[in-house]
Each structure stands twice: as structure tokens, then as C-alpha cells.
Amino acid sequence: MSDTTCILRLDDVDVFYGEVQALFGISIEVHEGEIISIIGSNGAGKTTTMRSISGLHSPRGGRILFEGEEITKQKSHQIVRKGIIYVPEGRLVFPSISVQDNLEMGAYSKRFSRRELNQHLEEQYALYPRLKERRTQLAGSLSGGEQQMLAIARGLMSDPKLVLFDEPSLGLAPVVVDDMFDTIVRINKERGVTVVLVEQNAFMALSISNRTYILENGTIKTGGKSSDLIESDEVKKAYLGG
Amino acid sequence: MGAVNNMNLMQFIATGVAMGFIYALISTEYTLIYNATGLVNFAHESFIVLGAYLFGGTFARSLGLPPWLAVICTVIAMGAFGVLVSTIVLNPLRNLQFITYAMFGTMMLSRIIIESSRLVWGPLPFTVQGFLRDSIKIGSTFLFKAHLYIIAASIIIVVALQIFFRTTKMGKAMICVSQNKDAAALMGINVTRSINLTVALSAMLCGVIGIFCTPLFNISTGMAASAALKGFCAGVVGGFGSYPGAIVGGILIGLLEQFGTMLFPTAYKDVVAFGVMVIFLLVRPSGIVKVKKA
Question: Is ipTM beyond 0.85?
Fold first, then answer.
């Protein structure tokens, strides 16, 4: 990966919740165009890492750099403007406004004309035709899978450079899980979006990503090429069920 | 209100609907803050009083501005006051660990505003002479001019608010902030600023309510006490947190208390609103319009 530029870098990041330390000197590097996955058990600090990058939670120590610029202490709404989108765990769609209004809110940080906005809506509807069928429905009335689609489509409305996916397969029916990962790969390939993926479904995460970091108790245990890790006995034993 | 016999149906309805709209706007005003911050603003009564004092005491009497200009000045001043309150009180309070602290915070704020008003404008109640205090005659009925203005202005405000929330980017952002603050921030919405604007909007609404109360009551520190409580009842009856509910609840209570005077002595007028609220809490605690929560 030496021929591509580093788009996101976490340098020795420490994160606390009150007095409890959640992340201990995490360092992660993401290159442009990559799919990076972060795997680990419950409570390892995966979501905390995502929340720190997206500015929902400020790190106490270390630095986060996006395209060479420090964003460590910036607020979420400023970070969104730089092109980092976080598709959070549990979707967090706006339940009592329509699907289309949810999507339009995704473009809040952009000054689109009505025509550009419609064009962006159509792009997302092409990705998820189901959302087009339901565009006038309230987002709260969608199924879990549809809400996940909406959360992803909403994130793509602002033409992000980097998308952070947090447990996109959580609570989805097994049939839909494959589609979800296919879509993530498509977004990466077709739209040139760099992806950081946090997953409990370690096998899926390893199979679609270029590189993987393994988080354990708030520290990076190992990291490397996903194709190597998927063959490693240690990883097989701990995360892939033997 | 004593001569019930001399009032006919038209007057009854006009009075009931006008008071109902005042309750509806009060309910809307604190619903705005409740939805945006999760806090019940116990200082809202004092916001209304401050609006009335600014309008009556400062802009209309001391500065002698014409009513329309005094109204505009009051609304602008209240908006600025809202941003100030939001920045130094409500935004810090909503991040506290316990909601009780925030409750006490707004109660203290209320005392500060009321006592400051007493210091600035003096303890004696006063009126704004000539401001909507006359009646007009339609057929054989005399209608209080203030009631008609209140009804007309309230309808405009309610419609304008709906348009604002449905069509403008700022209004939609406020709705999103009220539904989920993290998600709103992730859309690129500046949550703190959006809350400041919501509180400013609420304070402006309080200013308008204060102006509406000016021709109905004397301007004094206690002028909005019963209206503020009935506005709270309107919210409970209509459905706490719902804007359409606030309107329905407000007008229902306004009309019921007016027609209640036909059945009970006028002295019991205030009991109606609270009685209706108690009945709703027992029978249908979610109110007329149920608020959907995700």
C-alpha cells in the first residue's frame, strides 16, 4: 500500500469515558481507496474508535489526522464537512420523518441545488430500489434491514471520501447480510469511497477488506493483510470459530 | 366575565377560542424546548411576563413606540434573550448528569427574571392604554377586539411554524435534533446552534404570548401564572411533545372552561382546565395526539 496516500491516521489515541479508559494508545492507518476492517469482541472498543474519529467523543490523548489535517478536537458537524461519514451502530435513522426526508438530511452539510439533490437521491435509490418504493413512508416504520439501507444511503448523500460502517450486519437476517457486504464493496469500487468497517462478523469483514486490525480490550492486538490473517491459526481460533 | 347572561354564543366561542389559542401557544412554546433539549422549561411563565414588560413597560410606554413597532422590537429582544438563556443556562444544563439539576436551574432562572422585572419596572401593575382594549360590534354582538387579533395572529403563527419546520433546512434540522442528537450531528448539523435557535424561537413565542396577555390582564409579575399552568394542561391533554396536540388541547381547554361558566359559578372557572387534565391523566395519559417514539 505504499503507492497510495494515507487518508486517515490515528496516532496513539487514548479515549476515556469519565475516569474509565476505553482505548489505550490506538494507532491506525487508512489509505485512500482501501477497505479496512476492525474486528474484536464485545467491549473491545470498536464503536468507541468510530465515535472518536467521527467527533462524537473527544480523545484525551493522541492525534487523529484526516488528509494530513488534525481533526482530534473537532466537533462532529465540522468533521462531516470534511468528508467523513459515520453510519452508526443501530442505524439512528430519524423515525418520524419520511424516508426521503431522511435522505435529504444526509445532504445537510452540502449546498445542493434541487437538481443536484434529486440526482443524489436517484443514485441512492439505484443502490437500494426498496427505499424508492418506501420513500414517503416514515423511517420508523421500516424493517431493521431497510433502516440499515436507509442509514447507508443517507450517509452517501453527501459524497463522502471516507465512510465508517459500524456493525452493518447487526440484527440482519442471514440472507440480507451477504447483500449488505456486497453493497459495501460496490460503494468502495464504484464510487471510490474509502471504507472503515467495524464488525463482529469477523469472517465477512476479513473476506471483503484489504487490511484488518484486531482490537482487544482497547488496544490493537495485531494488524495486517486480511488475506494473511484469515489463514492465521490464532485468528481462526479466536474469531472464526476454530 | 360576571354577566354570563348578557354574553351570547358568539362571544362565548370567540373568548374560548382566543384563550384556547393562548394556551395552545404556551403549550407549543415549551414543547419546542422540551423536544429540543429534553428539559421542561419551568421558567417559561417568566419569559411571558418579561415579554409583556418589555412590550408594555419599555417599548410602548417608556419609548412611546407605535404598537406594531413595539411588537417587532419585543419579538427581536426576546429572540436575543432566548439565545442568551440557551447559551448560559439550557445548553450547559442539558449536559448535566441528573435532570433534576436542570429542573432546579430553570426554576431559579424564573425567580431571577421575575425579581429583575420587579426591580426594573416596579412592583405596581399597569396597562398599555388603548392597545386593543375596545370592542367591535357585529350585528347585535360585541366582540372584544383583542380576542379577534389573538385568534388571527395565532392562526398565522401556527401555520408559519408548520411551514418553517416542513420546508426550511433550519426547521428540518431542528426536528432532527429533537429526534436524535447524535444522528443529527452526524448529518453535519451544529446541534448546539440548532438548540440555541429553538430556544430563541420559543422565547419569541413567549414574547408574543406576553403581548397577547397585555390587553387581557394588567401587566404584573403574576399575570401569566394561571395561563402558563393551563398551557401545561393543554400539552398533557393534547399529547405531550406533539405540536398538533398542543393546538387541539389548548383550544379544547379554552372552550371547555368558557362553557363551564354556564354550568358552574365563574369562581370555579380555573378548575375546569385542571379537572380535564386529571381526567386525561387517568383515562388517556398519552393525550389526544399520541407522540411516536422510536
Answer: yes
